[in-house]
Amino acid sequence: MLTIGLDHTKKEPFYRQIYAYIRDEIRSGALPCGSKLPSTRRLAKHMDLSRNTIDLAYGQLTAEGYIEAKPKCGYFVCQVEDLASLNIPVETEEEDPVQEEEPIPFDFSPVGVDMSLFPYNVWRRLLKEVMMNDNSELFQKGENQGDLGLRRAIMYYLRQSRGVHVGTSQIVIGAGIENLLFLLSLTLGKGRTMAMENPAYLNAYQTVRELGFQVLPINMDEEGLKVSQLEQSGADLAYVTPARQYPTGVVLPIGRRSRLIKWAREKKERYIIEDDYDSEFRYYGKPIPALQGIDESDKVIYMGTFSKAIAPAIRIGYMVLPKSLVSAYRKTAGIFSCAVSRIDQSVLTSFLSEGHFERHLNRMRNVYKEKHDLLIQKLKEIDSRITVYGAGAGLHVRVDFPIQDTRRFEKELLKRGVRIYPLSMYYIDGGPEKEQYILGFTKMQKEDMIKGLKAIREVYRLV
User: Fold this and answer.
1) Residue 94 pLDDT greater than 70, yes or no
2) For 140-151, what is the mean pLDDT?
3) Looking at the predicted structure, is the pLDDT value of residue 85 above 60?
């Protein structure tokens, strides 16, 4: 089996790195003429990559004559000794040295989860069961929308927990929100203008820009997205986080939700993209219903992921398409294979259907609620004038410290090993009237949180 080292720090796609490695091995004579290469399926499994990635690399090598495909036999190295002896110089791009950041001892990042309570034994057992069943079907190409079993499990979960109107034919499985946005861009077609909340979830903003959408920032007020500004924008798509706006934590009230749906209903090409990114975590009161669940006009594209509820490395997200877009998806984006391994899909299916996900979620809600309450309690002890927004749900809060010199505040905190996140860094355009801060509480242990908040108190009194 080929041992190919991939450099994850390079911007160069994996298939290009694989292509270059095999090409150089052939040129040097390390892979002589007639050598048989591993099948695309075997190499994909060995490298833990999508089979499409290996297909692209082999396709390029075949097109350039380095290898040839023999029917029912596989891929073999072609006669290229003369080419190898030419010693053709290959231009290499000079890379900047990677500078690793010093770890921050008390990082109140809104990204990440507490992995200390991850059910490793359950996940390991489910994976073992999947592999012991000798299910050769899992090593075949699956359905492009994702395996039916997983789509069915997600359908039941969304109906029961979020009130989403969904059938299995509407669900598309993808490797995270970025992959799903790519598929959605193909489904919707070119020339689209997308309105986004300002401030915004920057990862989604950068992704849609790279995908060629024209992006229009729509400002927020104390009730969320200014729908009146959206109505005047000329956008035909709106990307929103209505259950808990990211990063402000504002819940879009029912009046604005209705007006937002009315805006989408006015023109055939208009759609709302609802990113329901952390709705599983609500510590007080009833869950906020999904916008898609109250839409009767088939105008909401619903997206979610298991990255925050289970683990960031489980790159499995889902998209619920309006029925009116399913055929468009199948004609365009539907040609692409599902980017999630069928083995991972099978494990997650069992995790959901056997009740492990619900138990894990209940456990993590209790843990995060304790951290959430501790954070707010300690902030109020620092100064009762400190205002906390977006409390009672989610994985972070927005905090208004009554200070003037915010730059010095941040600088002094970093000296003490504490990082908090300015609201201004999340703006697509402009900035807040007064600087506020995002403080996450999920990844840190309670002991570290207390130490970090002690440092915040010292700096707060200093500035």
Assistant:
1) no
2) 94
3) no
Handedness of CA 158, 203, 212, 236 (dihedral sign): positive
The most distant pair of C-alpha atoms in the chain lies apart, rounded to whole Å, by 79
CATH topology of domain 14-85: Arc Repressor Mutant, subunit A (1.10.10)
Q: What gap in Å lies between CA 357 and CA 151, rounded to an integer?
A: 15
Residue with tokens 């599902």: 338
- Dist CA 447 CA 300 (whole Å): 42
pLDDT, average across residues 123-140: 85
What average pLDDT does the segment 157-185 reach?
96
CB neighbours of residue 163 within 10 Å: 14
The secondary structure of residue 440, as a DSSP letter, is E
Band of pLDDT at residue 64, cut at 50, 70 and 90: confident
**Rounded CA gap, 151 and 324, in Å?**
19
The first and second tokens of residue 354, run together, are 């056997």
- Calculate the CA 308 to chain-centre distance: 9
241-299 confidence digits (pLDDT tens)? 999 999 999 999 999 999 999 999 999 999 999 999 999 999 998 888 999 999 999 99
> Which comes out higher in pLDDT, residue 173 or 30?
173
Pick 106-116+358-462's CATH classification: 3.90.1150.10, 3.40.630.30, 2.30.110.10, 3.40.50.2300. Answer: 3.90.1150.10
Closest CA to 218 of 256, 267, 164: 256
For the chain, what's the residue count?
463
Residue pair 116/447 in contact (Cβ under 8 Å)? The answer is no
* Closest-CA residue to 75 (of 48, 43, 111): 43
Instruction: Give the residue carrying structure tokens 């208004």.
Output: 400
Q: What is the pTM of this model?
A: 0.78
How far is Cα 390 from Cα 437, in angstroms, rounded to an integer?
12
Under CATH, which architecture does the 136-353 domain have? Answer: 3-Layer(aba) Sandwich (3.40)
C-alpha torsion 84→89→93→97, nearest 10: 80
pLDDT reported for residue 96: 60
Helix spans in 134-222 (H): 148-162, 176-188, 202-210
Average pLDDT, stretch 167-189? 96
- Other beta carbons within 10 angstroms of residue 221's beta carbon come to 10
Alpha carbons 273 and 301: distance in angstroms, whole number:
5
SS3 content of the chain, % helix, strand, coil (to 5): 45, 15, 40
